[in-house]
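Exam revision sheet. Question 4 asks you to relate a sequence to its structure. Input first:
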Amino acid sequence: MTDKTALTPSTHTTPPAKFSHGVRKGNILQVAGQVGFLPAEPGKAPAPAGPTLREQTLQTLANVEAILREGGASWDDVMMIRVYLTDTGHFAEFNELYDGYFEAQALTAAPAARTTVYVGLPAGLLIEIDALAVLG
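Answer key, structure tokens:
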């Protein structure tokens, strides 16, 4: 049986409850829902990258990527991405940001599957993303 390893990059604070930012077991890596918090600063509470969908989306994707790297994975290993938006009016803008981000990544694998749903998040947060990666 392969051990399960919790993943917390140096850019992230300790989770506020009993969960891991990411977990790897064998060749499976699950990234917990990430929001657009700026990298951790000692003694400071987490803060969003900014008030706009663009700022929060780009930071959220960077936060997911940090956990993927911590677990030895990359976007090419991602099989599934789940996106949680707080406003249905953000869907088109999000798709543009998402497409631009992944075009810049120069991925060699087929794009990941994606689901987008609408949820309530804590005040000021517009987006959350989680991912599932399978390493070769």
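Marking note for examiners. Residues 53 and 126 are 6 Å apart (CA to CA).
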